[in-house]
Amino acid sequence: MMMGERSLCWVVTLFGVLSAAVYSYKCDLYEGSWVYDDSYPMYDSTKCPHIRKEYDCIKYGRPDLTYLKFRWQPTHCILPRFDAEEFLRKMSGKKIMYVGDSVSLNQWQSMVCLLHAALPSEANIHEETINSTTTVTYEDYGVSISMFLSHYLVDITQEKIGRVLKLDSITDGDVWKENDVLIFNTWLWWYRRGEKQPWDYVETGTKILKDMDRMVAFREALTTWANWINSDVDTVKTRLFFQGVSPSHYNGADWNEPGVTNCGKEALPISGSTYNGGWPKAEMVVEQVLSGVKKPVSLLNITRLSQLRKDGHPSSYNAFRGMDCTHWCVAGVPDTWNQLLSAALG
């Protein structure tokens, strides 16, 4: 090979390496900001029959609707708009299940509303609830989308001493692993105490304790979940996702409004990509545990983009009139979580 040809070959190779690096850098869908887009929301929530009274902000009187008009814009790439028919076609014959707490339910309801809005009224759709699972089946596509309520992922059992949270036990996994796509979530209930705490004791290894460090317990439960994946789940058949920690907005100092104690008067997202509140410790634990899973699990990394949406919560616009800065209005932020899920599914 002549000198000029070698130089050209080296330049082409270097260009290819640099292009690959730039392409990889540009395709982080989770880095970006919220931009106003008058074509949003993607559906009219007043016409969706699936929304629970905790999340149905318009029905319960929210007067400002600007929060519906924001689209997530990644810094260096495009997040495709959700296309319901395309999603159902690519998922044809598949079973999808969200597994987790009420934040998972938030996302599930967003998904079924996105699909409901795009399908004709005569579409063959069937819904049923059995025990902890609600399933909507789109018969024309052979697609089912389920919500399995599990606050901790690990088991709570009734024993002689009372209700025991077992950090090293997952018995519902046999139901979960029959699905083709699983989206897991847990965090919201780990610091519940008093009447809201659904267990009396916690079992860790051979010990039965009245209580323990909740973050340590959270890590142990996630490790049990990770071990279950490594030993029991066929990832050739089943795609796995873990939803990042969904933030709440009760401390105005996190968005440069010291003294504010809730999201009740928030009408706009945080401008830009920076959130003062820092990264939740629970999210660090999630990412650490996921890094040790031997099989492929994708992080649906919704934490930072949701931190920027102090305006997206129901606040007092829910059936209970309580101040809710933890869950999300539907339509709203969870629609973007599902856009990201759809993009990740290819």
TrEMBL record:
Membrane topology: Single-pass membrane protein
Family stated for the protein in its record: Belongs to the PC-esterase family. TBL subfamily.
UniProt domain Trichome birefringence-like N-terminal: residue ranges: 26-77
First-listed, main subcellular location of the protein, grouped into a coarse class: membrane
Domain spans labelled Trichome birefringence-like C-terminal: 79-343
GO CC aspect terms: Golgi apparatus; membrane
Keyword Mitochondrion: no
Keyword terms: Membrane, Signal, Signal-anchor, Transmembrane, Transmembrane helix
Compartment list: Membrane
Signal peptide range: 1-24
Organism: Lactuca saligna
Pfam families per record: PC-Esterase (PF13839), PMR5N (PF14416)
Keyword Membrane listed: yes
MF terms in GO: O-acetyltransferase activity
UniProt protein name: Trichome birefringence-like N-terminal domain-containing protein
InterPro entries, alphabetized: TBL, TBL_C, TBL_N
